[in-house]
Design goal:
Helices cover 65% and strands 8% of the residues. The chain has 142 residues and is mostly helical. The protein folds into 2 domains: 100 residues, Winged helix-like DNA-binding domain superfamily/Winged helix DNA-binding domain (Arc Repressor Mutant, subunit A); 40 residues, no CATH class.
Length: 142
């Protein structure tokens, strides 16, 4: 699904790395470059070019930290928020059309699966569905 959503993006749109950095800054607010890299699970050196390009494009600001002058604090700009929103809107439009092709039951199954995947991604395994617990208990008894 992620691959398909990427193919729906227009030519010349921002890279996945750039969108991910913008999304992180949008959700979490201004952060040191190292903290952004940590959230992205990448090395700061790997993202330094991405940070520089985003700043050059006016999508983020990079300012020296008041606490540690060696460190840069990154923040998303209004233009960065607009670019992120435009990319999300484009993918949402495709997804909305694709969902119209599914039956109500299929959409319900996807909603349930999305809820479970969200909880797993947030590290909340104790909130797994009853069906998932039963499946796991059945496989561990075997």
């Amino acid at each position: 699904m992620a691959r398909r959503l990427r193919t729906e993006r227009s030519i010349g749109s921002l890279s996945s790395n750039k969108l991910s950095v913008l999304g992180t800054l949008s959700r979490l607010g201004p952060l040191p470059a190292g903290a952004v890299a940590e959230v992205e699970r990448q090395r700061p050196q790997s993202l330094s070019r991405i940070f520089a390009e985003l700043a050059l494009e006016g999508l983020i600001t990079r300012e020296r930290s008041e606490v540690d002058r060696r460190e840069h604090i990154l923040a998303i700009t209004d233009a960065g928020r607009e670019a992120l929103a435009a990319d999300l809107a484009q993918r949402d439009a495709w997804l909305s059309e694709a969902l119209k092709e599914l039956s109500p039951t299929e959409r319900g199954v996807l909603e349930l699966a999305a809820d479970i995947m969200d909880r797993m991604a947030m590290g909340q395994p104790e909130e797994r569905s009853a069906a998932g617990r039963r499946r796991q208990e059945g496989s561990s008894a075997a």
